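Exercise 7 asks you to align residues with tokens for two separate proteins.
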Amino acid sequence: MSKTHFTLSRRQFLAGSAALGAGLILPGIRQQVWAAGSDAPELTTVKVGFIPLTDCAPVVMAAIKGFDKKYGISIQPSKEASWAAVRDKLLSGELDAAHVLYGLIYGLQLGVAGPQRNMASLMTLNNNGQGISLSNQLKAAGVTNVESLKKAIDAKPAGSMTFAHTFPTSTHAMWLYYWLASAGVNPFTDVRTVVVPPPQMVMNMKIGNMVGCCVGEPWNQRAISDNIGFTAATSQSVWPDHPEKILGTRQEWVEKHPNTARALTAAVLDAARWIDASDANKRETVQVIAQRPWINTKPEIIEGRMLGKYEDGLGKTWQDAHAMRFFHDGEVSYPWDSDGMWFLTQFKRWGLIKTAPDYLAIARQINRVDVYKAAATAVGGVSVPASSLRKSTLMDGKVWDGTNPEAYADSFAIKQ
């Protein structure tokens, strides 16, 4: 059997499995589905890694609220210490899947975030909800935004200011680099950057290991509450409704467990829809994920920004129009190929990859739209877009739509 034939058959099988779960029979696949005998998940327990961040919520709530049982599996969330640990456990097979950084999965596919492995993104877990925090020492020196930060950086020897992000190919590295570069700061020559696990960000800022960081919530709000730093920018101010964490795994795992992949995606998708359905559900989610097994912080540190109620530590408060979202009628959850391609353009921009990749082909290989569509059918009532490309405008006015990725990657004045 040729590779092409195998791929088509597997994808037909996934679609057929979801159709059966929804009480439907799709033309052209009935014989294969019945030949397989069952669309039941191959695994009954699925171990899913997570980092203690607000955006782990869909994975946690899928297990806590029983959405996993609805699709024939038991999700076993596994709290991890760092993104490097998540990477290593995904690659070793200790984790079946994970709440994971978009850029980590793409970095592994290209061999720039660890050993090259073929990876898979089953769905996007959230949009928005990260932040760039600066220390109160900078605030005391009159630094309140990226423009005044640029002046402070220029007044010191190159590389004397240190900033932290969470992983070399992380979303947080990309937001930080983009934000700094928007004001003319080269993040590779003008400042020093280091990797710090999210739960350790606030303490490292407190003891002076860095003057700024980009990290997920609730750690930016925690910096304000602990009187250590302030929010200089939200990630959604860099890119409104940007992709953030994904439900990631190895391609090999999906191939070996196609029904389990569909069931896992359906359970987490169903949970994401439930969270976004009301503020009451979000508040319930906060009360759960604040507990020791999950994030281990006070609920009030999480709740405000979960509901879009922001303060920046400089006296400003606002209701953010692009706060953290988990579903938004499926627009959040769908694994847009253009989202993955954007990270590839930034890897190229910053010299993490030296030659232009086949942007769309890589995105289509990683982003398992076939699994997502089958899961969406199983869940029911989930909108699926006609195209895998979407249009976005970032903070500098640049428009990204995935149509000419190499020209986009080369269009920046500051790059490596």
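Second protein for Exercise 7:
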Amino acid sequence: MILYVRYYYTKKSFALQQKLFVRTEELLRERQKTENLLSRVLPREKAKELIDQGKVDAQKFQMVTVLFADIQGFTKITDEINADSLIDQLDRLFFEFDSIVEKYGIEKIKTIGDAYMCAGGIPHPNRTNPFEVVAAAVEMMGCMQKLNQQLNNGKEIWELRIGIDTGPVIAGIVGRNKLTYDIWGTTVNIASRMESASEPGKINISENTYLVVRDLFECKFRGKIPIKNKGDVNMYFVEGFLPKFSESSRYIPNNDFRVELQLVRLADLEEFVLEKLEKGLPKNLYYHNLKHTVDVYTQVELIGRAENIPNEDLLLVRTAALFHDMGHLIDYATHEEMSVKMAHEILPRYGYTPEQIARVAEIIMATKLPPKPKNILEEIICDADLDYLGRTDFIPVSNALYKELHEHGMVGSLHDWNLIQIDFIQKHQYFTQTARRLRNVNKDVQLKNLKRWMNELENDTSL
């Protein structure tokens, strides 16, 4: 009887567990459906915030670039094209726009009929959004021409009009039953006015945007427009990428443009990395601290420009300098390897290609002692990393390095350390002509000072 009771309750418990498991699976699937649905209408971060907190607070962004695009004469087109064909063509056009917007990391806000609205610099602030939005606009124009060529034998049936402005906006979620992510403010109003004042086949930008992007795009002044509470605002037509930044067509950017964009984006990466180092580095890193990273980052740019390396190489070596000691956030002994790991995790978010990341990783590993650089970029970072050997502040920097190594159990007495320093400096050589010209003389002075100080110390000891 006892065995039967045990069997009965065990069976019942198992059945309840099975029901609980099935119900849990159903709830997880429903949650996933909700997250997927929200991510289609809201930025992914805002969708997660809404699910976790049940609400999303409005945010103010200081620099956002807003784009309005409108199909010119859409009503006329509806009279000339079959309705089904019209919708198919419009869907195809907006699909192409979505692809361009996604490529540049721009947030699509909404489409209303034949109008398309997007904005760069939200929900993640950045410095590159004016360039990215204008580049997207140029590619949209190229896409429109291509579509006309394919569907209408080159006849300009679809004509696009674009307006853009850069400035502060308020962003938030509106609606109860149907949630949408939207933006408000003077910048949105000016961008809308830029679009309405534009012309078919033209990109009309405000002076706010022009002052940022004029070095990368071909722009033409086209007059002023009165705007309420702003007075007269200058307007410019964007004709396309500057010839040196475009392929055979002015609507297609070349690699030089992408590198220029990455160099602007480097300022965002710099801010991110330095903040991580400032907050996260252990307090007993007296040498491998934030100041050392800033010193190396500054010096690689100085040496790189003096050595006249190409812009993309300058980008990569500066990036490697930012990351070369970031691994100290994880581990002291293997910080170079940890730095490489962090570079692989972080750099894709800043538009680096796999090939660029691989080169950055090689440059970082070149800082591992003893230095054995294999190319000019590795030579530059090795020289920048040991720049202090030939600086006037050599003694205090050397003492900071000794204190750090001593606390980590990697060096003995100060006397032993100075002997190591003398031996290291005697064998050390700078690799680049720039570093040799800037630091060799003072490095020899520091070596003589160390030897003299050691001799005086030994004579005092013998007495």
